[in-house]
Structures are given as C-alpha cells and as structure tokens.
Design goal:
By secondary structure, the chain is mainly alpha-helical. The protein is 71% helix and 6% strand. The longest helix is centred in the last third of the chain and has 40 residues. The termini are far apart.
Length: 143
C-alpha cells in the first residue's frame, strides 16, 4: 500500500510539478513519513533498543533524501531535466518554463522539509510508544 502511494504521488501525478508550485514541497513533507514507516518496519524486526531503531530510521531517511537531491543535481547537469528548482509552465507554450524558486533554495528547502517530516515521524512514534507503555501500566494496576 505504501509503495502504491509513492508511485501514485511521485510518478503518476508528476505533471503537477509544472502546474502547482507547492506540489514538490508537499511531496517532501509526505514521502519521508512514508519512507520512515517502511524503514522502521524493517528495523523494528531487529532486537535492538527502541531509541536505536529511531536513530537508524532518522539517519536512513536523511541519507536517502540527500542521495535523491544529489541525483536531481546529476540529472540537471547531464541531461538538463530541470529537477532542481521549482518551475511553472509558461502560458505561451508547453516547452517554456518560469523559474519560481532557484536550484539551491529548492534543494535546501527539500532537505529541510524532509528532515522535519522524518523528525515528525520519530516524535509520533515516540509518543505512541510512551502512550502504549503508560496505558499498559494503568491497565495492569486496575486488575
């Protein structure tokens, strides 16, 4: 289900990049959360402490975000695919693009938003873990 969501929003709806300025930023908020869920699911099978599972998840997501941004840079350098920066199609034609946000600003904002959303996942996972432990203790006391 998670992979299907990534495919729909990342690939099938990719023409929205050129019509809706915030689509890229929305993806950089949502996709790292989905990625964190997948990474944590894999890491959770190991027998290490919860805090290390969260740290591995966070560092894995920051690493993946960085590799994706490096990939965007290489696509721009070698094939001029305009993957860095935010472009909007010009009303004059389909091939003309207006740069709305520069390449460096876009890359840094993408990394910041991805890291923030990964930290949001970590905070939510920590909160639910403590909530479950608290309710388990309260439930045992009632018996």
């Amino acid at each position: 289900m998670y992979i299907l969501t990534i495919l729909i929003f990342g690939i099938l709806l990719s023409p929205l990049y050129y019509y809706f300025e915030l689509y890229d930023k929305i993806l950089h908020l949502i996709m790292p959360i989905i990625g964190s869920i997948i990474v944590f699911f894999i890491v959770n099978k190991s027998k290490i402490e919860f805090k290390w599972k969260l740290l591995i998840t966070l560092t894995s997501m920051v690493f993946l975000l960085t590799i994706l941004e490096i990939g965007e840079y290489l696509f721009d350098v070698f094939w001029d695919l305009k993957t860095q920066g935010v472009y909007i199609r010009d009303i004059a034609g389909l091939e003309k693009y207006d740069l709305v946000l520069g390449e460096n600003d876009d890359t840094m904002m993408d990394l910041i938003l991805g890291t923030i959303s990964s930290l949001f996942f970590i905070a939510a996972k920590t909160g639910t873990s403590y909530f479950k432990k608290y309710h388990k203790k309260v439930f045992k006391k009632r018996k």
